[in-house]
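Show me a record, fold above all:
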Amino acid sequence: MSSIDKMTDQQASQHPHGTDSRAATEAALFEAFGGVRGMVETTVPGLVFVAIYTVKRDIHIAAIAALGLSLVLGIARLVGRDTLKHAFSGVFGVAFGAVFAMMSGDAKNFYLPGMLYTLGLAIAYIASSLAGYPLMGLILGPIFKENLSWRTRNPGRKVAYTKASWAWGLILLAKSAILFPLYWWGDATQLGWVKVALGIPPMLLSVYLTWIFLSKAPPPIDVFAEMEAAERAEREAQAEAG
């Protein structure tokens, strides 16, 4: 048995199904999606926009207030030395929507960039699953330090990632199926309040299903640890030969 195979067996014994596996999966999901705080930060600016617009009927005031709040939330993440991707992704999304709404003069356009992103993401999840490269695996693989080993060496995890990607894709498609008719035929306040209501629950459901699928899957293969073990074995062999 090679040193790499031994390392893989050691990893499997060190990561049994149960509390440790579930905790590792939970930590990875929080890192990937920003946790509850990230969900709230993506929802609150939209809530501020629709609340102010409902009262004032002024696109500029509502958009500036939402953008200002998003900047404050982003700065708070930076001050707390949080991950930069969570600090800036929300700010850019809100900024794009705010500028689009103010330039077009239509308050509904504040939500359009996010809606298009959601629809595109849903298509990406489904298409990647059909292609054999489920997007959830591409997102979480590096976090679990398994990279793409799940595709060829850990079929149980590939199945779990595929199921999770299908879950995300279908849930986001359902969300889009509700929002786009409101964008076309409803008014800005209807669209805004429904979008706020659909902000956190679908994501929580998606994350929960992902956690369920991965918690029941085989443990990840730590390819970084394998490479380190192989390099160590090579150095030991060279030292013995010398």
In short: Residues 1-17 have pLDDT under 50 and may be disordered.
